[in-house]
Amino acid sequence: MNPFLAAPNNTFRIRDPAYTHTLAPNFDGFDAWGSYKFRIFTNSLGFRDASVREVPLAADRKRVLFIGDSFTESLGVAYEETFVGLFARAHPELDVLNAGVSSYAPSVYYEKLKHFIESGLKFDEAVVYIDISDIQDEATLYWYDQNGVLQLTPPIPPSEDCSPLPRPPLPRPEKGWLEKVSYLAEFLDQLRYSRRLAASIERASVEDLSKSGAVYSRDYARPSWTYSKDATCYGAVGIEGAIDKARERMDRLYELLTAHGVDLSVGVYPWPQQLLYDRENSRQAQIWREWCAGKCRRFFDHFPAFFRYKEQDPDFVRSLFFWGDMHFNARGNQLLAEDLIWNYK
Fold first, then answer.
1. Taxonomically, which superkingdom (predicted)?
2. Fewer CB within 10 A of the terminal residue: the chain, N end or C end?
């Protein structure tokens, strides 16, 4: 293995034996998302926070715990710019916790909150933000071993067509003979390619990045299940089986929280594909609105707010998302936070 190309030692993303992975507690350092470098703090629970702090098991005020995947963790932006951080600033009377971590899905929402409840953590409301990608992750990544322990490993390596990462707009060239025999030459070649790729993405239009297999394409498998019956890459269970599995894991979570007197709320939001190819009343919103009936204290459907923004800004993809990526930038987080704060009664 080329030592120059070894992955950096990301010390704050760690394995957890109960719910697969988490963030290290009491971390003060930096993370990177693409070309964006940003500071990260975690508290004593290993939750992303405004600073390193000791979190008591019981709070002296109402405590609201958010959980979700990379969108809730809010990759690429400082905590103060995340929608959870903005919500916390708008509600200083609440003790707000953010248990979200990249690649989580309903199986982890259940296991992680179960773990912390059994550890004695007290909170009054859990707000679960269910991501578009949760359906594929439930279909292909999460399973229980013979001891009933949740595992995060794909049953078989995904094919290129089913990669969770979209196809880059600049194909990677074949290695020359020098790159094959020299670690340094290979490293320099990778560095040049990375710079050319970044420049290519920056110059690209939405149309360029919407070509088949690209990050904003209609046929990108990961988000396409909400609007395409032909979506593939959902394993043996398929889309419908994955939706059923996600609902069942959320049923478990509802029963767990209810048994401990904790209110449950659920939120949903669009990816670029939903704004480009789907409708405001997306299948994602329909599924979780129906599931929430009789269970949730609140259901936050942020699709209307994002579709209203789309009507006002023709360059909405670049405005709301990191360019060449599906995650919200600071403006996207702000839009979600504004809608959340307005509807939080």
1. Bacteria
2. C
Structure tokens, 281: 């009343």
Q: How far is residue 188 CA from its own chain's centroid?
A: 32
| CA gap 73, 82 in Å, rounded | 8
Q: 265 near 296, Cβ under 8 Å? A: yes
- Give the domain ranges of the chain: 3-163+219-343
Tell me which residue has tokens 């089986």: 241
How much is the pTM? 0.91
Is CATH 3.40.50.1110 what the domain over 3-163+219-343 is classified as, yes or no?
yes
Pairing of strands 263-268, 28-33: unpaired
Using only C-alpha atoms, the chain has a radius of gyration, in whole angstroms, of 20
Give residue 170's pLDDT band: very low, low, confident or very high (50, 70, 90): low
| pLDDT 10s digits, 7-47 | 455 689 999 999 999 999 999 999 987 777 889 999 999 99
